[in-house]
User: Which sequence fits this backbone?
């Protein structure tokens, strides 16, 4: 996955969960290039999960996808 693909996948995942682009500034939360390098550096047999929050959503990035784990509303 390239930097742009990962970036778009994160943005698409957030939008599908209902978070508008004007509700967050992704570059303040993560460094997409560094995240991509970390994901790509893990071997194909390694189980890598990187978790972080964007707005009210908790995300998990793996070598194969980006998922919403929960929202702060669900945690309450």
Assistant:
């Amino acid at each position: 996955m390239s930097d742009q693909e990962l970036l778009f996948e994160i943005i698409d995942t957030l939008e599908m969960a209902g978070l508008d682009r004007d509700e967050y500034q992704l570059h303040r939360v993560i460094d997409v290039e560094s995240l991509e390098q970390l994901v790509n550096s893990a071997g194909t047999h390694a189980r890598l999960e990187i978790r972080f929050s964007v707005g009210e959503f908790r995300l998990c990035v793996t070598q194969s996808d980006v998922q919403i784990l929960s929202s702060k509303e669900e945690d309450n």
